[in-house]
C-alpha cells in the first residue's frame, strides 16, 4: 500500500509540475483591449528606442488600414491588418514574436516596408491581439497559420501579387518553418530577424539561463503534449530550411542575449536556397533595424532588388 501511495503521489506531483511548465511556457491568458495605450516591449535594452517605437506605433495607428480574418487549420479565427504602400506593391506578411502582438512588435516594420516600397500585412498570431487561441506553440502550429495567410493573400490580392514572409523572433522562426514547404510562386522571399533554430534549442537555453536543472525540459515537453496537444520537437527552422527554395535574408543583432546570434548562423547554414546573413553590431534582441536602419535598408533593397524593390 505504501508503494502504491508513493507512486500515486509521484504521479500527481509530476502532473502538477508539468502543468506549471505548460502555464509558464505556452499558456496565453485572456487579453484585454489596450485602448489608447501604446504597448512597447519592456526591458532596459529598449529604453533608448522607446520614443521611436511609440512614434512608429502612433504613426501606424493613424494610417488607413483594412482588417482581414481567416480560419486556422484547427478552427481559430485569426486577424491581420493591411497597410497599402501603393497598388501592386510587394506585400510583406509580417509575424510578431513570443507573447507579443502586431502593434507592439511590428510598427517599425510598417515604416521600414514603406521605405523600400512594400505594403504590409500585420498578422496577430494565434493567442495575440484579436486572434483566438490559448496555447503558444513556438512556431509548431503558427507556421501552418502562416501558410494559411499565404493562401488568403494569393486569393485576395490576386495571382500576380508578390509576397514576402517576414518575421521577428518567434515570428522569424514561424516564417522559416513555412519556408520548408512548397510555396506558391507569389512568395518571392523570406526576411527572418533574430529567429531561433528550434523550439527545443531556445527553451533549453532559457532553462539554462534560469538556472533550472536540465531535466526541466522533460516537463516542458510533456506539458506541451499533455495540455497543449502538440509535440515541441515536431518541426524546426533548422530542419525545414533544408527544403527551402525561396531566397532568405537573415538579420540578427550581435548583442542579442535572448536569442543568440549563432542561432541565425545555424539557420543560415541549414538553408538550401539563395541566402544572406546580416549581423548588426551592438543590436540587442529585435533591435537590428532600430540600431542601424541604413544597413538594414541597404541590404534589404540589394537582396530583393531584381524582384521586390521599389
Q: Would you give an account of this structure?
A:
This protein has 12 helices and 8 strands. It is of the alpha/beta class and 310 residues long. It has one domain: 3-Layer(aba) Sandwich (Rossmann fold), CATH 3.40.50.1820. Helix 1 (2-25) crosses helix 8 (216-228). The N and C termini lie far apart (75 Å). The model is unreliable at 306-310 (pLDDT under 50).
Overview in brief:
The protein is of the alpha/beta class and 310 residues long.
Topology overview:
Layout: H1 2-25, H2 50-62, E1 66-71, E2 77-83, E3 91-95, H3 102-105, H4 107-115, E4 119-124, H5 142-157, E5 163-168, H6 170-178, E6 187-193, H7 199-209, H8 216-228, H9 237-240, E7 248-253, H10 261-270, E8 275-280, H11 288-291, H12 293-303
Parallel strand pairs: 3-4, 3-5, 5-6, 6-7, 7-8
Antiparallel strand pairs: 1-2, 2-4
Amino acid at each position: 500500500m505504501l508503494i502504491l501511495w508513493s507512486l500515486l503521489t509521484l504521479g500527481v506531483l509530476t502532473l502538477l509540475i508539468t502543468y506549471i511548465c505548460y502555464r509558464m511556457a505556452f499558456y496565453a491568458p485572456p487579453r484585454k483591449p489596450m485602448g489608447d495605450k501604446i504597448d512597447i516591449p519592456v526591458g532596459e535594452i529598449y529604453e533608448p528606442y522607446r520614443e521611436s517605437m511609440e512614434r512608429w506605433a502612433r504613426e501606424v495607428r493613424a494610417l488607413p488600414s483594412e482588417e482581414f480574418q481567416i480560419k486556422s487549420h484547427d478552427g481559430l479565427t485569426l486577424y491581420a491588418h493591411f497597410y497599402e504602400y501603393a497598388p501592386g506593391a510587394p506585400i510583406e506578411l509580417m509575424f510578431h514574436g513570443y507573447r507579443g502582438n502586431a502593434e507592439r512588435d511590428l510598427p517599425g516594420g510598417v515604416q521600414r516596408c514603406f521605405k523600400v516600397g512594400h505594403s504590409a500585412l500585420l498578422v496577430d498570431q494565434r493567442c495575440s491581439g484579436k486572434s483566438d487561441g490559448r496555447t503558444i506553440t513556438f512556431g509548431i502550429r503558427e507556421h501552418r497559420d502562416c501558410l494559411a495567410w499565404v493562401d488568403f493573400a494569393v486569393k485576395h490580392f490576386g495571382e500576380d501579387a508578390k509576397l514576402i514572409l517576414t518575421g521577428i523572433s518567434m515570428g522569424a522562426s514561424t516564417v522559416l518553418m513555412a519556408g520548408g514547404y512548397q510555396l506558391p510562386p507569389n512568395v518571392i522571399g523570406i526576411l527572418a530577424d533574430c529567429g531561433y533554430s528550434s523550439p527545443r534549442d531556445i527553451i533549453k537555453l532559457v532553462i539554462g539561463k534560469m538556472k533550472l536543472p536540465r531535466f526541466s525540459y522533460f516537463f516542458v515537453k510533456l506539458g506541451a503534449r499533455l495540455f497543449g496537444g502538440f509535440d515541441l520537437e515536431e518541426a524546426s527552422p533548422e530542419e525545414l530550411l533544408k527544403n527551402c527554395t525561396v531566397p532568405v535574408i537573415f538579420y540578427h543583432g550581435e548583442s542579442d542575449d535572448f536569442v543568440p546570434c549563432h542561432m541565425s548562423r545555424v539557420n543560415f547554414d541549414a538553408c538550401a536556397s539563395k541566402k544572406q546573413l546580416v549581423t548588426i553590431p551592438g543590436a540587442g534582441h529585435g533591435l537590428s533595424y532600430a540600431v542601424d536602419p541604413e544597413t538594414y535598408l541597404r541590404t534589404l533593397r540589394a537582396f530583393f532588388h531584381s524582384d521586390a524593390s521599389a
